[in-house]
Amino acid sequence: MAKKPYYITTPIYYPSGNWHIGHCYTTVICDALARFHKLMGEEVFFLTGTDEHGQKVEKEAKKRGVTPLEFVDPLVAELKDVWKLLDIGYDRFIRTTDEDHVKCVQRIYQKLYDKGEIYKSEYTGWYCTPCEAFWTEGQLKDRKCPDCGREVALQKEESYFFRLSKYAPRILKLYEDHPEFLQPKSRVNEMVNNFLKAGLTDLCVSRTTVKWGVPLPFDEKHCSYVWIDALSNYISALGYGSEDDSLYKKFWPADLHLMGKEIVRFHAIVWPAILMALGEPVPKQLYGHGWLLIGGEKLSKSKENARPELTDPYELVKRYGADAVRYYMLREIPFGSDGEYTTERFLMRVNADLANDLGNLVSRTTAMIVQNFGTLPPCGKKEAPDLGLEEMTVGLFARVKDAMDRLNAPEALEAIFSLVDRANKYIDETEPWILAKDPQKRERLGTVLHELSKTCCTCAVLLKPFLTRAPALILKSFSLPEETGFEWLGSELEAGTNVEKLPPIFPRIDVKKELAAVEQLVKEKSAQKAPRPSVISSASSSVISSGGEAAVEKSQITIDDFSKIELKVGEVIACERVPKSDKLLHETVKLGGEVRSIVSGIAAFYTPEEMIGKKVVVVTNLKPVKLRGVLSEGMILCAENEAGELSLLSPERAIESGAKVR
Ligand code: MSP
C-alpha cells in the first residue's frame, strides 16, 4: 500500500551568519515532526533552505567587494553545518539561487502575468531593507518599521503589482471555513484585525533598483520581490510546473508550513492569494510559533552577545550535545508562545530531565542487570507496582500522538517523561538493591529489572522524534536495533538477551560552575566582537554594550523586588480605540480619588464598549510613556495563554477602585 505523504517546511533562512538558537527553533520542531511522521510509516518530505536574494545581500556584498553569491555561499555552508550539528534530517535544502527554483519563480510570474493577476504601475512606499517589506505611511510605528523598529526609506519606482486586494474576501472565507488553516487562533485575530478587516492593497512584486533577484520573464528590467521569490520555494522544491512535477503531485498541498509569528502575514495572506491566483490548492496548515526571548526581547543577531547567555548553537552542541539542545527547545518553550531563554534554565532542565531522570533510570537498570544477571532476566509473577508501571505505558503512545497531531512537542515530551518519572518511583518502591541482597528474592529482582528494561526501551522508542543520539544508545544496550520504531511498542523483551551497562548518557552538570564558565566565555566572545559576518549591519555596537552586565537575567526575585511594584484596582470609566492602531485601546481609569489615562494592547480581544465599567488591576508606578502620541500612565494586567489570547485580571469580589493589590 502506498504510504501516506506528509510535507512539512520551515521558512527559508536569510543567510545572515551569526546563527543563534532562535534560528534553530523552527527547524528543530519541524525535524521532530518529520521524524514522528516517518516513524508513523508516512512518506515524509521535509524542506528547508535559504532565502538569498534581495537588497540587503546586494548591499552587503558590494560593501565587501564580492559578488552576492560569493558573499552568501559561506553563510549557507555555515547554516548547513548547524543543521548537521543538530541532526536535522531534511529531505531537501533549497537555495533561492538554485537554477530550478529560479526557473520556477519565472514560470509563476509568467503565469500570473498571463492571467492578468499582475499589472504595471508606479510604487511609492516605505521600505524596510532588513525585513524586505514595504509599509504604508499609516502602518509605520513612530515613522519606523512596525516589525523591527528600524529606519525605513521612501521609495518610488515603476513596478508590477499583484492584485492582492481582490483576494481579501476569499482569504477571510478560508479562515472561516477552515479554522485549522491558521494556528494558533490568536494569529487569525491578528491577520483579520490588523490587515484583512481594513481591506488589502495590491502588492508591489517587482523592483528595478535591485538587481540581485530573479529577472521577470516578461520584463527583464525588473527583478522579483523577495517575498514572492521566497514563498515560491515551497512549490519550486517539488518541481511545480516543470517537466517532472511528480513530487508536486504527490506532496502538494503541504501538510504544514511552520514559521515564527513575525512572518505569518506573508504566509497567511500573500501566499494563499498567490496560490489562488495560480489556481492551485492552498497549504493545509500554517502555524506561527512564538519566539525565544532574552530579557523579554526576541533573541536576534544584534542582541545575542548582550547578556551572559550562550546562544551559539556550535558552542552549545559542543558543550552539552545535540540531544540536550534539541530537548531544551522542544520541551521548555510553551508551543505557540514566547519563551524566555536563560543558560541557567537550560542547564537546570537538562540536568533534571536528561541527566537525573532519564540518564539515571537507564544506567541504574543496566548496571543492576549486568551486576546481578549478566543478561536480561525473565519476567516472573507480576505484583501491584509492576501493574502500576504497565498501566502508565498503556495509552502513552496515544497521548504522544495526540500531542504531536496538535504539533505540541512540549506536551508529548511531558507525557513521555511522566513515564520516566514513574519508573524512577517504581525503583524506589521495589528497592531492587535490597532484593539483590536476598537470594530468595532473586526471581522478584529479575521481574523488577525486566519491567524496568521494557520501560527504558519504550521511552527510547517514544523519544526518537525528539532526541537523535540517546534513544539509539539505550536500545543498543538492550540489544535492540537502532531502527526499532513505533511498531515495537507493546512488544516483549526476550529473557536471556545481552544487556550492556550504559554509562551516564547525560553527564550531570555543576550548574554554578558551568554558569561562571559560560559567562566568561560570552565575555570573551563579545570582546572578539561577532566572529562571523552579519548581513544586518544596522546592529550598532551601542545596542550590544547597552545590555551588558547590567542586564544579567535572574529567574527569581525577592519579596523586596516585588514590593517595588505598586498595584491597584482601577475602574474603566471611558474607553476608545487609539486612532490608526489595530492593537491599542485608550482607557480612562479611576483609581480611588485619581483618574489616569492608560493605553493597552488589548484591542484584538476587547471592544471599548466592553471595557467601560470593568474593574481591572493596574500597575500604577510605571514611568509614564506616550504610545502613538497618547499618554499612558500605568499598565492594565492581563493573563495570556499559550495561544496568545488575553484575559483581563479582575478582583473576584466587589471592591472599590483604588484598593491596593498585594
Ligand atoms: N527569509 C524569511 C522567511 C521566508 S519563508 C518563505 C525569514 N528568515 S529568517 O532567517 O529571518 O527566519 C527564519 C526562521 O527563524 C523564522 O521562522 C523565524 O521566526 C525564526 N527565528 C529567528 N529568530 C527567532 C527567535 N528568537 N525565536 C524563535 N524563532 C525565531 O524570515
Descriptive overview:
The protein contains 23 helices and 26 strands. It is 42% helix and 18% strand. It has 662 residues and is an alpha+beta fold. It has three domains: 5-289, 3-Layer(aba) Sandwich (Rossmann fold), CATH 3.40.50.620; 313-320 and 334-488, Isoleucyl-tRNA Synthetase, Domain 1 (Orthogonal Bundle); 529-648, Beta Barrel (OB fold (Dihydrolipoamide Acetyltransferase, E2P)). It is globular and about 90 Å long. The protein binds 5'-O-[(L-methionyl)-sulphamoyl]adenosine.
Identify low-pLDDT runs: 530-555
In the sheet with the most strands, the strands line up as: 3-2-1-12-13-7
Strand % is: 15-25%
Shape estimate: globular
Give the tally of β-strands: 26
Assigned CATH class of the largest domain: Alpha Beta
Query: Which structural category do the helix and sheet elements fall into?
Result: alpha+beta
Task: Count the domains.
Answer: 3
CATH fold-level topology of the largest domain: Rossmann fold
Distance between the termini: 64 Å
Bound molecules: 5'-O-[(L-methionyl)-sulphamoyl]adenosine
Helix content: 40-55%
Mean pLDDT: 90
CATH architecture of the largest domain: 3-Layer(aba) Sandwich
Largest sheet: 6 strands, parallel
Rg computed from alpha carbons, rounded to a whole number of angstroms = 28 Å
Our count of helices gives 23
Assembly category? single chain
CATH superfamily descriptor of the largest domain? HUPs
